[in-house]
Amino acid sequence: MDKSIYDTIIIGSGISGMAAGIMLAKEGEKALVLEQHSIAGGMTQTYSRKGKIFPTGVHRLGSLKPGQPLWYYFTYLDIMDKLDLVKLSDDCFERVYFPTNNYKIPTGHDNFQNKLIKNFPDQEKSIATYFSDLKHVISNIGMYDPGIIPKKDLSLRHTGPLEEYLKSIDISGRLKSLLTANSPLYGISSKECPLLIHFIVSDSYLNSSFRINELNTPFSDTLADSFKAKGGKIYVNSHVKKLIIKNKTVIGVILDNNERLFSKKIIFSGHPSLILDICPSELFRPAFRNRLNQANTPGLFGVALKWTKNNCPLEKNDTYIYDSWDVNYQYGRDNILQDDPLGMVYLSALPDKDKSNKNFAVTALTGISSRETCLLKKYYKESKNNKYKAAKNKITQKILNHIKQVYPDIFENIEVADTYSPITFQRYTLTKNGSAYGIQKTAQRFLEGMFHPATKIRNLFLTGQSIGFNGIHGSIVSSVNLCQLLFGKEYLTNKIVGRQN
Ligand SMILES: Cc1cc2nc3c(=O)[nH]c(=O)nc-3n(C[C@H](O)[C@H](O)[C@H](O)COP(=O)(O)OP(=O)(O)OC[C@H]3O[C@@H](n4cnc5c(N)ncnc54)[C@H](O)[C@@H]3O)c2cc1C
User: Fold this and answer.
1) Domain coverage including residue 469
2) Residue 154: its pLDDT value, please?
3) Distance 66 CA to ligand 1 centre (A)
4) Does 41 fall in a domain?
5) Nearest CA-CA partner of 145 in 58, 59, 60, 67
6) First-to-last CA distance in the chain?
7) Residue 461: which CATH number?
8) Is the CB of 429 within 6 Å of ligand 1?
9) Which atom in ligand 1 lies closest to the alpha carbon of residue 41?
10) Ligand 1 center to residue 128 CA distance, Å?
C-alpha cells in the first residue's frame, strides 16, 4: 500500500489529466495520475494493427507555429521540442469534396478569404464580414490564445447559433456548406453550434495544421515523460471506484482492489457524469446532477486502413467527403444501420517512419448518433461476436463505398486493419456513450454545458473536454483554467506566455 500523501491525485491520464499534472508538478507539487486502463493516455493513445500505428483521438492539431495559441501551451508543458510534427500543406491542409465540386482549404485567413471570393464572387461582402467577425471574436476571448489578453472577455456574447449568424450576414447555399464543412471537428450541427466554437476551431487550423509523427514521438509517451521528469507518478490499471469524503471534503480515493490513496486535493478528468458513480450523488444539487447527465456529442465510427500501395493521396491534407451539400444531414439522419447514406466521411493519414514512403495508416471516420450508438450497444450486449460484428461490417462497407466516390480504386489500394465504434471508446475511456467530444455545448443551452472547475465538495476539482471546450486545445485550456484557480490567473498566464519563469 502506498502510504504517501500526495498534494494532488489526478484521475485520468488523457490530455487534460496530463496537462494538469505537468502544470502542478511544475509548481513543485507531488502529483499522482491514476488511470483505469492498462495503458496511459486516454484518447491520446495509439494502437498497432497489421504493422501500422493508428491514432485514437488525435489526428490533427492546429496553431503550433511559434507564437500561435497551442504553441504557447505545448511549450509550457515542455513537449513542444520533443514532438516530431508533420506540417500539412499550406496550399491545402483540408480538402472538402461535395457531389459536384471540391475545394482545397489553404492555411492563412487571408488566403482562405481570397479563395472563397474567387469561388463565390457575388458574396464578397459577406465573406469579408465573416473573416472580420472571426478576427474580432478571437481577439476578445480569454485563454484560447494566451498571447492575447482582452480588456474584457466577450466570449459569452458570441454563443448564438452559427446558422443564424451566417443568415444574418447573407451567407447561404454552397458557401454555407463549405464554411461549415469542418463541423465534424466539434460534432454539432450549425443549427445548434455556438458561433464561438465554430470560430475557435476554424481559427486554430487556419493558423497552421500539423500531425504528430506518432511512430517517432508517441504523444502519450511525450506527455508522460514530461510529467515524470518533474517527479510525477502514473499508476495504470487503477480504476477509482470511490472518493473518500469527510465533512464534504475529499481526502483520498479507493481503487478497485480496495487500496486507499490519500491527497490534499483530487482532480477528476473523466467524463463528468462518472463523478456520480464515485461519490454520493446527494452531495450535488439535482440541477447540477441533471447538467452532468445532459446530452453528449455524437460518437465516431472509425475504420483503420492500411494503404498498401505506395500512392496514398492523403499525405499532406485531411479530407472530408460529403455525399450531398447538406452538411447538417449527418446530425439528423435516422439510422445508418439501415439504408440511410452516411452523409460524411473524414479521412486522415499517419506517415510512415520512412518519410519517402507513401504507404500510410489512414483513419476513416463517420459520426454515429446516440440512437445508432444505443442500437450498437444493444447488439454488443446481445451477442458480442455476431450481431455487433455484422453491424460493424455493414458500416465499414458503407464507409468504403462512400470513399470510392472520390477514390474509385480504393479497394485495390487498402486493407482494413481494424474497425471501432463508440462502444470501443466507452470501453477504453469510460466516456459516456463513447461520445467523441463529451457534453454538448449547444447555442440554445450554452451555459448548462459549461462547468466551473471547482465543485461543491471541497478540494474536488473537474477538468476535461466536457468542462471547457473539446479537442486537445480545449482540454488543455480546461486544465489551465483549473490551475489558474489554484495558483492565480495572472501568475500562471505570465508563466505560460514566458513573461516570467
Ligand atoms: C475518433 C476521435 C478523433 C479525434 N480527433 C481529434 C483531433 O484530431 N484533434 C483534436 O484536437 N481532438 C480530437 N479529438 C478529441 C480529443 O481526443 C478529446 O477532446 C480529448 O482527447 C479529450 O481529453 P480528456 O482528457 O478530456 O479525456 P480522455 O482522453 O477521455 O481522458 C479521460 C481519462 O480518464 C480515465 N478515467 C475515467 N474515469 C476513471 C476512473 N474512475 N478511474 C481511473 N481513470 C478514469 C479514462 O480511462 C481516460 O483515460 C478526437 C476524438 C475522437 C473520439
Assistant:
1) 5-81+214-294+440-496
2) 85
3) 26
4) yes
5) 67
6) 37
7) 3.50.50.60
8) yes
9) 49
10) 36
Ligand 1 lined by 432 (C-beta under 6 Å): no
Give pLDDT, residue 12: 98
**Ligand 1 centre and the CA of 78: distance in Å?**
20
Grid cell locating 154: 466577450
- Across-strand partners of 368? 299
Q: Could you give the CA distance from residue 425 to residue 368 in angstroms, rounded to a whole number?
A: 12
Report CA(357)–ligand 1 centroid distance (Å).
30
By the 8 A CB rule, do 314 and 350 touch? Answer: no
**Do the Cβ atoms of 278 and 256 come closer than 8 Å?**
no
Phi, psi of 318 (to 5 degrees): -90, 160
- The answer to whether residue 198 sits within a structural domain is no
Number of domains the chain is built from:
1
* pLDDT recorded at residue 119: 97
User: From residue 390, how far is each of 7, 337, 380 by CA, in Å?
Assistant: 49, 10, 10
Q: Whose CA is nearest to atom 31 of ligand 1?
A: 14
CA distances from 19 to 34, 87, 196, 432, 497 (A): 14, 23, 23, 22, 16
Sign (positive or negative) of CA dihedral 391, 393, 399, 404? negative
Q: How far is the CA of 430 from the centre of ligand 1 (A)?
A: 9
Comparing 335 with 497, which gets the higher pLDDT? 497
Q: Is 170 domain-assigned?
A: no
The answer to whether residue 117 sits within a structural domain is no
Residue 162, pLDDT above cutoff 70: yes
Answer whether 57 contacts ligand 1 (Cβ < 6 A): yes
CB of 430 closer than 6 angstroms to any ligand 1 atom: yes
> Is the C-beta atom of 274 inside 6 A of ligand 1?
yes
Distance 273 CA to ligand 1 centre (A): 14
